[in-house]
Amino acid sequence: MPRTTDGDGTPVPRRLLAAATRLFAERGYDRTSVQEIVEAAGVTKGALYHYFGSKDDLLHEVYARVLRVQQERLDSFADADAPVEERLRGAAADVVVTTIDNLDDASIFFRSMHHLSPEKNKQVRAERRRYHERFRALIEEGQEAGVFSKKTPADLVVDYHFGSVHHLSTWYRPDGPLTQQEVADHLADLLLRALRP
Asked: For residues 59 and 109, what is the distance between their CA atoms, to the nearest angstrom?
C-alpha cells in the first residue's frame, strides 16, 4: 500500500483521484490546475507526478477505474451459468447502476475526453471497445441461439443501449422520481424488448 502524507490512512493515489474528481466535476478539467489538485489532496506536486505523471493521466484514471469495475462485472455476467437472456439483462442493468454510482466520473470523462493526449485517447477507445465487444457477444450468442431477433444488427443494439448509458449524467438525479435500480431495470427491459423475436 502506498504511503500517505498524513495519518488518515488514505493512500496518496486515492486522495489525488478524489480531489481531481471533485475539482474536475466542479470547475471542469481545463479550468483545474495541478496546483489546485495537490492542494486539495494535501500532497506535493512531486507526489502527483510520482503516481500519475500528468493531469492527463489523472483524467484517464478517473474513467479507467470505473471501466475496470464494469469490465470485471460484465465478464462475471457473461461467464455465468445462466440463460443468455438473463445474463444480458443483468449486464445491461449493471452498467446503468455502476455508471450512476460513478456519475461524476462518467460526466467528467464525456465532457473532457477530447483533452486526453492522442495516446491516452487511443488507449481509452481500446478499453471501451473491449467492453462493447464483450457485451455485443452476448447479444450475438442469443441471436445465434434464436433467443433474440436478428432483425436489428447487434452493433446497433449495443450503440442504442450505451447511448442511453452515456447520457445518464445529463439527466439522472439521485433525488429524482426513479431510483438507480428502477432506471437500470427500465433500460435493461427496453434493450430486451428491442431484441424480442
From this structure: 7
